[in-house]
Amino acid sequence: CSSSCSFSSSSSSASSSSASSSSSSSDAAENADADVDVEEASSSAVSSSSSSSSDANADINTIDLHADQGLFIAFTPGLIVDTVTTTTTTAAAAAAAGSGGGSTSSSEVREVLAADGSAAPAGVFYLLRRDGTRARAHFGFNGDVLVLMLGDGVDAIVNPKMPEGVQLRSAPHGMVMPAGLTPSQARMWYGRMFLPPAHALSEPHGVTFGELRTRAITEVHASGGVGSGGVGCSRMMLETEGTQCADNQMYCWMRCMNYTAAASPAVCAADAANNTRLQCASQRDEVVPDGKKHGDYHPTCTNSTANVTADPAMPAQYATAPNCSSSSGRFDAFLNKASYPNSHELVKGKLYLQWRRSGGDAVEARMAYDGVVGWLAVGPENPGGGHNGMNGAPVVMGVYDPDPALYGGAAWLNYVGTGVAERVIHHTESAFRHWKEPYATPALVSSEMLVTKCHSAMTFKTSKISGVALNVTGNTSNRLIWGVHTAGLLKGYHGFGNRGHLDVDFSKDVGHLAWVNPYAVANPSPPAAATANTTANTSASSTYAAVTAADKSGGPASSRASTRFVVAAATAVVVAFAIQMLVS
């Protein structure tokens, strides 16, 4: 919808649109209202009250910047069409009309072409870049283009479940109608928007997506085609216009966060000497005015006006030395596999969890990394805990803290000193500052945090971690979580691929197990005959074959077929992935 949640164009252009649920083969999951088809025609009929002679030929800003509510939309670029009326005089018509003559008329909708035979310009479709600048999208003019564009559904549904450092971005966009269209001309486009399943819960609003859509439609009907700009528009608009936090909360870190004893409007106002006010800030006192940043941000009394900057990198004096290449063979020697007969390669060629039985119910373990780390951690998953079992999990954590004065001092660094300790990750708050204190009654028999200019290793011997016993002798697997941070010395950070889950049976020797790609997908199977119950995988395989055939033949029919199959495959794969995110 537009910035005003309008299902029609602005007052300077009239449009008609239709929406209906679809149950084509692209419905990968059994959610009948997961997508809507939208076909729209916009004419340039401008009333005298909305234009003057000086701007009658100017492009019309039809739809302001917005992001669609759905998961994504597949659409064909707009084109300009004209209704052409042909009058033909026939002998039969003339005879029937007598001396007055006779004629028949027929109307046909045709695409308007430019002088060179290409499609006539259909206005301006523009996008908002990450840096806040706008860019015009050029789709080409060969008539065989399909555009796939993410909506704000990915922010609400997919991104919270993505690996750290991997974020899909919705595409804020707008459209400007072309100037100079005649009364018989219109801009046409066709698209299919995939929406979240109606029964899925929108966590920020506490209601289902079906209920949100019902409210949006009700608002539009009640207001003559224009909604309120809140419910029903994109998540971007909900955050700025519709999200209402409680009286004891503020919007920060992409959510409503409670005031604290140290941070509330009253507490901040009382600090008149420092002129502080309640703001969403990081540990480095960098401020997020709208609260729309992911990271360790929290309500803070501060007078800071500093903008958010990139995470600080590993200081040069502590970084991995340039002569420590893996090809030198130094890391193989550092691993010392002869002393640790069992290992799991966690990050390909870089990080290993090594272990050996130590008699009784104890295990000796070692996490070794090819390079300098800020921290390493491993421990039993907390079943049912937030962030896939991370919150509330007991861990053994090795920290490299060589300098308490880094990054603005010990408070922002959360300085704890170099060493190994048992900890329990906070049950609801993920930031390290909430759980940096070591476990009160540790069970570690021995431990060491070793960091050289080339390599890092945490070693420990124990039978339990933060009060949770390890299964060492009972032929029972231990479901572990692990993580490592290598880009800096802040404890609250890790990167894509630097965390995960692992099943380990410490009662058995397994040898040295190679890395397994957790995001690998099997090769597509040969296309099968299409049925009414075609699955997402089959759709994807069939699409590949159809597109290949279309590329070889190059004919218009095969081109249209390839477009249909591309839409079906793309929608099936994205929806299947999104639904998996919902239920996982």
Q: What's the helix and strand layout?
A:
Layout: E1 15-21, E2 35-43, E3 60-66, E4 72-75, E5 79-88, H1 91-97, E6 104-111, E7 124-128, E8 134-136, E9 147-150, H2 153-158, E10 173-177, E11 185-194, E12 201-202, E13 207-208, H3 209-222, H4 235-242, E14 249-252, E15 255-258, H5 265-270, E16 277-282, E17 297-302, H6 330-335, E18 342-347, E19 351-357, E20 363-369, E21 375-380, H7 386-389, E22 394-399, H8 410-413, E23 419-424, E24 446-451, E25 456-462, E26 464-465, E27 468-469, E28 478-485, E29 499-504, E30 512-513, H9 536-553, H10 556-583
Parallel strand pairs: 18-30
Antiparallel strand pairs: 1-2, 2-11, 3-10, 4-9, 4-11, 5-6, 5-11, 7-8, 7-10, 12-13, 14-15, 16-17, 18-19, 19-20, 20-25, 21-22, 21-28, 22-23, 24-25, 26-27, 28-29
Verbal overview:
This protein has 584 residues and is α+β, with helices and mostly antiparallel strands. The chain has 10 helices and 30 strands. It has helices spanning 91-97, 153-158, 209-222, 235-242, 265-270, 330-335, 386-389, 410-413, 536-553, 556-583, and strands at 15-21, 35-43, 60-66, 72-75, 79-88, 104-111, 124-128, 134-136, 147-150, 173-177, 185-194, 201-202, 207-208, 249-252, 255-258, 277-282, 297-302, 342-347, 351-357, 363-369, 375-380, 394-399, 419-424, 446-451, 456-462, 464-465, 468-469, 478-485, 499-504, 512-513. The strands form 8 sheets. Strands 1, 2, 4, 5, 6, 9 and 11 form a 7-stranded antiparallel beta sheet that branches. The chain has a 6-stranded mixed beta sheet with strand order 24-25-20-19-18-30. Helix 9 (536-553) packs antiparallel against helix 10 (556-583). Mean pLDDT is 74; it is low at 1-34, 44-58, 225-242, 524-567 and 577-584.
